[in-house]
Write a structure and sequence with these properties.
Blueprint: E1 4-13, E2 17-27, E3 32-36, H1 43-51, E4 58-63, E5 66-67, E6 78-81, H2 93-103, H3 108-121, H4 137-149, E7 155-159, H5 167-184, E8 187-192, H6 195-201, E9 204-209, E10 212-217, H7 219-224, H8 229-234, E11 241-248, E12 255-258, E13 263-266, H9 273-277, E14 283-288, E15 293-296, E16 304-314, E17 319-328, H10 338-344, H11 352-360, H12 371-374, E18 381-388, E19 399-404, E20 410-412
Parallel strand pairs: 3-8, 3-9, 6-7, 7-8
Antiparallel strand pairs: 1-2, 1-4, 4-5, 9-10, 11-12, 11-14, 12-13, 14-20, 15-19, 16-17, 16-19, 17-18
Helix pairs in contact: 2-3, 2-4, 10-11
The structure holds adenosine-5'-diphosphate (ADP).
């Protein structure tokens, strides 16, 4: 078993591309840590730095309490599984799994026993004498997994190992990875862009965007209490409702989120009221998941929105309603691009920007303008997406009253930072 500690780990690729920006994170002994984020956010780069396949530009990497920045890969005792677990085509399944033990000149009887045992756990014991070319994609990934596990490394690193498989196989193998890795108790860092994989597999999730850590916590912490609007929107199987509101505190009696035609109020006794009131007079972003909204009768006088049903969508296990309610929608703010900050912030002159310039003799290209700037702060009217049960309570064109579960409300600053919860800083 082993722990992994990243202390402001940074990767700048030749040419000046900042792929990982001062990541600080710990994977505890025996923990299953998932690195989640959109494609290109730096997950694989981080994993490859942990494996020793990519040099760390700045910051410290500690493996099992030892500074490992310059430790050769073979001395790290890590096993890696990739998207396309490349197998030796001329070796049988048995030969592939046994390979790391044969190289280590282990006792052949022990190797045979270990491979047989592992192949049973991976449900490939029937294929042991076949060659990889005759196996399905799922079976090949199982063999790759077996080869990684067989010598019981201190650390497993997995880079999207399921993404080339079809949906059914993904679900099956996902469950098996989870139980196998947990039964072995080996610390695992697992990269994926798939939120379902992350939520179902992880002890904790570290979510990244543009090379920057956005949030870290258990799946439930991150889902129920996301640190930023980006995290709330990313961890959402249905689209997040994100509206723009102005904070008001009329006569200091309560805190109000003013959406124009709609208002939600929080009494001062609400633990979030004070933090939100600090933004009085300012615009904030309010996030609501479709399952935090529900259809209610016209007579309902609790916190609610009203509108008209514009469309209904059937999803098999549920219906979603799109309710036109005239509330101002907002784009999910992208976190500031670290490349821009590094290139332009004078306070960083001796820091990262300075380092990038020193390394490559030039400033980094400024990024594209942010989407929310292009949309003028996002004041177009938007539909509210409401989760209905298996039988829709509404028809298209119906007037609709939508109850809001205030406990599920998420309030963010214009920049997307959570302001209504005591989130620990990441
Ligand atoms: P992810 O795994 O999240 O999809 P990567 O770590 O592969 O992201 O890439 C992060 C960023 O670094 C991307 O913009 C990618 O284009 C860039 N990148 C990756 N590898 C290299 C490389 N060898 N040289 C230059 N840029 C790279």
């Amino acid at each position: 078993m082993s722990s992994v500690v990243l202390d402001k780990v940074t990767k700048v690729y030749p040419g000046g591309h900042l792929a990982v920006d001062r990541m600080s994170l710990k994977a505890e002994d025996g923990e299953f840590l998932v690195l989640l984020g959109p494609s290109g956010c730096g997950k694989s780069t981080l994993l490859r730095m942990i494996a020793g396949l990519e040099e760390v530009t700045a910051g410290d990497l500690w493996l099992d309490g030892k500074l490992a920045n310059h430790l050769p890969p073979r001395e790290r005792d890590v096993a890696m599984v990739f998207q396309n677990g490349a197998l030796y085509p001329h070796r049988t399944v048995r030969g592939n799994i046994a390979f790391p033990l044969e190289i280590a000149k282990e006792d052949p009887a022990m190797v045979r026993e270990r491979v047989t045992e592992l192949s049973k756990a991976l449900h490939i014991d029937e294929t042991l004498e076949r060659r990889p070319g005759t196996l399905s994609g799922g079976q090949r990934q199982r063999v790759a997994m077996g080869r990684a596990i067989v010598r019981q490394p201190k650390l497993f690193l997995m880079d999207e190992p399921l993404s080339n498989l079809d949906a059914g196989m993904r679900t099956e193998l996902r469950m098996e990875i989870s139980s196998l890795v947990r039964s072995l108790g080996v610390t695992t860092v697992y990269v994926t862009h798939d939120q379902v994989e992350a939520l179902t597999l992880a002890d904790r999730i570290a979510i990244m965007n543009r090379g920057v850590l956005q949030d870290v916590g258990t799946p439930a912490q991150i889902y129920n209490d996301p640190a930023t609007a980006f995290v709330a929107a990313f961890l959402n199987s249905q689209q997040l409702n994100l509206l723009s509101a102005t904070v008001r505190t009329p006569q200091n009696e309560y805190v109000m989120l003013d959406f124009g035609p709609h208002r939600l109020t929080l009494p001062w006794s609400d633990p979030r009221a004070y933090a939100i009131s600090q933004h009085t007079g300012n615009q904030v972003l309010v996030g609501m998941r479709p399952d935090g909204l529900a259809p209610v009768p016209e007579s309902y006088d609790g916190p609610s929105f009203f509108g008209r049903v514009r469309a209904l969508e059937y999803h098999g296990h549920e219906w979603l309603a799109y309710v036109e309610c005239g509330a101002p929608g907002a784009e999910v703010p992208e976190p500031p691009d670290p490349r821009l900050a590094a290139a332009l912030d004078p306070a960083e002159a001796g820091g990262l920007g300075g380092m990038v310039r020193k390394l490559f003799g030039k400033a980094v290209a400024p990024p594209q303008r942010e989407a929310h700037e292009q949309h003028g702060g996002g004041h177009r009217r938007t539909d509210l997406i409401v989760r209905l049960g298996v039988r829709p309570a509404w028809r298209v064109g119906d007037p609709a009253k939508v109850a809001v579960d205030l406990t599920r409300l998420m309030v963010f600053s214009q920049e997307g930072a959570r302001i209504d919860a005591n989130r620990r800083p990441v």
